[in-house]
Amino acid sequence: MNDMPEQVLITEVLLRDGLQIEPVIVPTEDKLRLAYGFLEAGLTSLEIGSFVHPDKVPQMADTDRLAAELCAGESASLHTLVFNERGARRALDAGARHVRLIVSASDGHSRANAGVPTRQALERLRPAAELLTQAKVQLEATIATAFICPFDGETPPGRVVATAHQLADLGISVLHLGDTIGAASPWHIRRTLTAVQAELYDMPLGLHLHNTYGMASANVWEALHLGVRRFDAALGGVGGCPFAPGAAGNIATDDLVNLCHHAGIATGIDVDRLVALREELHARLGRKLDSALAAVPAAPVPLRPTAVPG
């Protein structure tokens, strides 16, 4: 256990990845209430929406309004997703200060998600990155299907490394690797992470995990031993990709916080407030949530301290 970190950064992605596939479109006012609730619970990083065409993902049609409301004077990192220059301009108009570029490592998913193969999707991101960099927006990036693609099968680590290099050239400060369909195992995590770490050893890495086959917590544990300190998660295990057949929800924030706290890893998140937010989410969605903790009345044993050291 001596290679475990003292703390990790959890980015709550419910408002984007969590809600983008829900059949019920959550009103903007409810999203704002959830966002402020997350901040009050101690989360310092939220993914609040995606600048995509509302006809493709109507659940994200209010991202401009969310960003304009939340980013004004807020000290937390509030991320929005951008796929092209048009999205970058919308992000700037809305006052976004933290943007994630996103591209798929596999051509099959890139065609489904962005309408073009990976190479062309990366070309589209260049003018977007230049525009955002000029505006001094903090740039991060996510590589979708970094481990397995629903169309192309296993993604070769070399392809992920090549994509990572091109994103690094765009000036990103953090790179996230996505298990978009939740099919990766700890072996996939180690194989690809170590390949990327060997080539981009100065780049902070994060993981965006889905839990389709129940492996997300095991993948977090593997990644922690490999030095990863950033993880995306969605409260209640909500989420999925509309362009990735078979993808289930994200690793649940409540389950991830529980895992970290039992291992003595601080998150800075107030567990009681998180539970209250989960109950609120359950009522708003009107369905059973997918996290393990949503099915039980309390954590099985007392948690260790939750405060971030220092």
TrEMBL record:
Gene3D superfamilies, sorted: Aldolase class I (3.20.20.70)
Pyruvate carboxyltransferase domain mapped to chain residues: 8-275
Keywords: Lyase, Metal-binding, Transferase
InterPro entries linked: AIPM/Hcit_synth_CS, Aldolase_TIM, HMGL, PYR_CT
GO molecular function: lyase activity
Protein family (similarity comment): Belongs to the HMG-CoA lyase family. Belongs to the alpha-IPM synthase/homocitrate synthase family.
Name of the protein in question: Hydroxymethylglutaryl-CoA lyase
The organism of origin for this protein: Streptomyces lanatus
